[in-house]
């Protein structure tokens, strides 16, 4: 482990799925998301991202670009972006225009993370794409088209992104497999891995990315972000209790039985089967749940082992006050870890 790696500060950010909780509506969710973003800005978080999902009762971030504008307009300094836009659902030109508009409204604060999955089931993907459903989608080529639309060199083209052309909108490659790692490395782009729900290939993928990275005009050396689940509280027991909402959320993913985010419970014993428990725990391998001291130790170990540049925390916590407190504690932990590395 090099001295440079030991000393580097780790950036910390937020992934918000705009989770709709039991008894509330998407309108309520957007209010709490803005409040959390303002608090995150105060706590020193670097980014606040939304992920594009469709046809999911508990996830209200389907119109991702609109939500990004809502949050950016209600904050001052924090970067706001997508983690990510599912590029096969959109034409590169429309994405360039939308994010060009956002970058014009909020200069220097907009990120564009891109994924190749549909962000939904196949039936809904067909509804989104219509006659384009069976069309060939070339993810690398679509990213290159986006880069062209954003470049000043495109001013002589017959098709231009206005606004968008000539604007600095950082593009990230999102992924959960070695394929995305190879792509991000070949294109010289920052790489964000979905380890919060797809942990299997995480270490292999970031190793491949770093090994094969080619410097580009956008990035001179590899940059890895890991997304993880975080539930922090005053005590380990309280965090474990709050985390049962996360467990129920992912049980819905495993079983296909989606519900609004459920309140925490004292025990999951009568809620899930052994098979469901195993599947959920596999998905949640990179989860940090506990009081401050426990989390500090576990996160420090994670950072030493992976050497990631940035950690993006997502927290499915039922009570908004408890969720804000979890992000406050997580920011304190990262600040203390960074201070110890200096």
From TrEMBL:
Residues 28-250 form the Luciferase-like domain. InterPro entries: Bact_Lucif_Oxidored (IPR050766), CmoO-like (IPR019949), Luciferase-like_dom (IPR011251), Luciferase-like_sf (IPR036661). CDD domains: Flavin_utilizing_monoxygenases (cd00347). It comes from the Bacteria. Coiled coil: none annotated. GO terms for molecular function: oxidoreductase activity, acting on paired donors, with incorporation or reduction of molecular oxygen. GO terms for cellular component: cytosol. To bacterial alkanal monooxygenase alpha and beta chains. NCBIfam families: oxido_grp_1 (TIGR03558). This is Luciferase-like monooxygenase.
């Amino acid at each position: 482990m090099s001295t440079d790696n030991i000393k580097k500060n780790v950036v910390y950010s937020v992934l918000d799925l705009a989770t709709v909780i039991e008894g509330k509506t998407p309108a309520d969710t957007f209010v709490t998301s803005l409040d959390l973003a303002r608090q995150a800005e105060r706590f020193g978080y670097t980014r606040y991202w939304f992920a594009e999902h469709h046809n999911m009762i508990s996830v209200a971030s389907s119109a991702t670009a609109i939500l990004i504008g809502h949050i950016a307009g209600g904050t001052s300094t924090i970067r706001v972006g997508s983690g990510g836009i599912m590029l096969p659902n959109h034409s590169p030109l429309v994405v360039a225009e939308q994010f060009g508009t956002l970058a014009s409204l909020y200069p220097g604060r907009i990120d564009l993370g891109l994924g190749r999955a549909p962000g939904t089931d196949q039936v809904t993907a067909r509804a989104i794409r219509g006659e384009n459903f069976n069309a060939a989608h070339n993810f690398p080529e679509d990213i290159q088209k986006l880069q062209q639309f954003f470049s000043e060199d495109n001013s002589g083209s017959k098709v231009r992104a206005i606004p968008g052309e000539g604007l600095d909108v950082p593009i990230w490659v999102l992924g959960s497999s070695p394929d995305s790692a190879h792509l991000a490395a070949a294109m010289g782009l920052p790489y964000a891995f979905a380890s919060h729900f797809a942990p299997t290939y995480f270490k292999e993928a970031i190793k491949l990315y770093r090994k094969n990275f080619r410097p580009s005009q956008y990035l001179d050396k590899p940059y890895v972000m890991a997304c993880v689940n975080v539930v922090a509280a005053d005590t380990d027991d309280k965090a474990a209790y709050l985390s049962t909402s996360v467990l129920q959320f992912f049980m819905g993913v495993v079983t296909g039985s989606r519900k609004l985010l459920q309140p925490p419970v004292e025990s999951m014993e009568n809620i899930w089967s052994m098979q469901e428990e195993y599947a959920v725990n596999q998905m949640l391998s990179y989860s940090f749940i506990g009081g401050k001291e426990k989390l500090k130790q576990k996160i420090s170990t994670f950072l030493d082992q992976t050497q990631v540049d940035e950690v993006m925390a997502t927290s499915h916590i039922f009570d908004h006050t408890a969720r804000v407190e979890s992000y406050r504690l997580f920011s304190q932990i990262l600040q203390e870890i960074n201070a110890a590395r200096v």
